[in-house]
């Protein structure tokens, strides 16, 4: 038997199939399979800050949602990160209030930077679009400078959740343990499922999917197959599928 692991974050899917070590196998074979298994799981798991952010972005946003950069001007330039974070919180609260009054919600993932270029404090954020006065509402809630950039999120093979996540995580952390990005509590999280499959099982890419990355590794005793792709239709995990009704 092999093991299959699936991580679903909106349209972004990571799948990996790898060999499992059996209790009856000799020490050499067990060690080889465990090594391959560990490597396969590393491919699927989010190891770095940008990989975790990639999954969070995919779980919450679709093409057309808003990618925003808000820069502080000289008159409102924060003296430190704590002050910058407080002003960003006020921005978020005011935008949440506007959305709530209009009957919509705010899902926002953001980070604060100050080391690129001239070292000016600024905020990067991805915000769900409502199809209403999104641009005007953002400008209303940001009184700290006129340098505001708002674009639409792109999701394709060249520009996607990974490129956006890498961009937002480009600055090194100021100290160990400092998370480089944050999100509102109502954000969705990736879904994970792991289950056994037969030895001849292979990952089948759904029709219309865009493959972002794939890798297959084989040794004398074990192998794994890993693929990351953008699905054209929602991917439903096995445990979430409705059970078939029994015939009477």
Properties at a glance:
five-stranded antiparallel beta sheet; 10 strands; alpha+beta; 2 domains; 26% strand; 5 helices; 248 residues; Alpha-Beta Plaits
The total of beta strands comes to 10
Main sheet? 5 strands, antiparallel
SS class:
alpha+beta
**What string, H for helix and E for strand, traces the elements in order?**
EEHHEHEEHEHEEEE
The domain count comes to 2
Termini gap: 34 Å
Low-confidence stretches: none
Radius of gyration: 22 Å
Strand content range: 25-35%
Major sheet: arrangement of strands: 8-1-2-10-9
Shape call? elongated
**What is the quaternary state of this protein?**
single chain
The averaged pLDDT comes out at 89
| Helix count from the secondary structure assignment | 5
Give the proportion of residues in helices: 25-40%
Describe the structure.
With 248 residues, the protein is α+β, with helices and mostly antiparallel strands. It has 2 domains: 2-47 and 193-240, no CATH class; 64-153, 2-Layer Sandwich (Alpha-Beta Plaits), CATH 3.30.70.1910. Helix content is 27%, strand content 26%. The chain has 5 helices and 10 strands. The chain has helices at residues 27-44, 49-60, 81-101, 134-140, 161-168, and strands spanning 2-9, 12-19, 66-71, 108-113, 122-127, 148-152, 182-183, 191-197, 210-218, 223-230. The chain has a 5-stranded antiparallel β-sheet. A 5-stranded antiparallel β-sheet has the order 6-3-5-4-7, with helices on one face. A hairpin with an 8-residue loop joins strand 4 (108-113) and strand 5 (122-127). Helix 2 (49-60) crosses helix 5 (161-168). The chain is elongated, with a radius of gyration of 22 Å.
